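In practice, a research group might receive sequence data for several interacting partners and want a quick structural hypothesis before committing to experiments. The following worked case mirrors that situation: the sequences arrive first, and a predicted assembly follows.
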Amino acid sequence: MALAIAGAFAIGAGCSTDDDTDDNGPDDTAPAVEEGRGGPEVADVSELADELGDAGFTCDLEYEGLVDDTGQREMSRCTIADDQATLTVWFDTELLDAFVDSDPQGPGATAVGPNWSIDTTDGATAAEIASALGAISVGE
Amino acid sequence: MAVRAHRNPLRTPLLVAVGMLGAFVAAEAAAAALAPYLSEPDRYGDRSRAVKAAQIEDLASCVDVLVAGNSMARDGFLPEVFTDADPAGRSAYNAALDAASPELTAAWLEGGVLSDTRPATVLLTISSADLNAGSPAAASALGSWETSVAGAPGILGDLERLASEHLALIEHRRELRDPVELGEAIGAAVRSERAERTGPDDMPGVLGPRGEGRSRQDLTTDPDAEPDAFVTEQILGNFDLGDDPSGRVADLIRTVAATGAEPVVVLLPVTPAFAGAHPRGEADLEAAADAARRGAEETGTAVVDMRGMDLPADAFADSHHLNRTGAVALSSQLPAALAEAGVETERCEP
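A structural hypothesis for the assembly, expressed as tokens:
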């Protein structure tokens, strides 16, 4: 009864939906890179970092998740295999489509999934990530 | 005809009030009993702040020298190297936060860091990245602080913090509203399995034990390599020092000085390529440094300019963060630089 009352009296702005994801360690069976943008669809950069962890890439986020001033993307950074990576979750995937279609050039490369991208300064890192997550790599 | 006795008109409302009070007390007692088994509430809006708060809570004593600023300070200052190089062996802690503007740094320090560390000296690192009023990263970081329990501003923020500290119903209101969370907590309570709480060692790949950054320590960059899109868009994006950058620096300095600690402004080295990422290049870097100096001058604060320091060629992790090599160089040269600037060697008062 007291617990029911506690629940009734609780005051809050909303429910917390943090996910606890275990780090399962390295994945030895990297899937083949598919032609389309395969890989997991994620809700936020924290979940993307967890997916990287499950695939064997250590990625400790520097920032909780910076939503840019357009509100279209959430970004963060981490170091993956001695390479600084920028993780982006795209709330508007049309923008991500446009990015991929633009055939980006320049240093580094980008692993691209259904609604996320991971930029690295080393093209090989992006390719490895893409391969492990079933995504594509652009800009090499 | 029988005379009807008068009923006290306050009887019913009083009974209701007593009943509600009793129910509230019972609910609070239940929430307090369940609290150790509920997920940790997000008090700080950012995991690294929570870890640093845990580290600060764990400090055995006060800290002689505290460093504050953004990720450049987080990565560039190694407390143990500083202590070893300091003739007086002053203790140090790195309280710098990623994407911290002077406003976030001031709020973070004032929100408990200064009172908990009681430093004698506070090194405030200032750069163009700190003072960019248009930085999306800085705005996001400040926003996440101000919407957190620890950082909510104003009287309502104070009330929320007070209530959270004393009432489990308030502290865990989000967890208690989640039926799944509540059920899991009850199960954990039956099994006597307490929920995890953030500890001082919880981000070993990102933060060292004295708050120093670890994630970029092993990275090396070509000093001429152009900064990437994250730097140009999120850190230096919409670059604008605003109307009163020196005033912002002065306000930060006054926040520190109000506690009795001695503030010192420190200017950190960056790569030539970092200058090139600004709209007006080197001129913008100089404008920021000038604002820092004017803010310091306005408040009678010493300035230690480390931008021309001796650094090995491989000192940078990227355009504006020192790696371990660079951080060791900076941290070991700082004691002499402070002395040269007339900053007295003071000890904190335990």
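Before designing any experiment, note the following. Strands of chain B lie at 65-68, 92-94, 121-125, 262-267, 302-305. Chain B has a mean pLDDT of 95.
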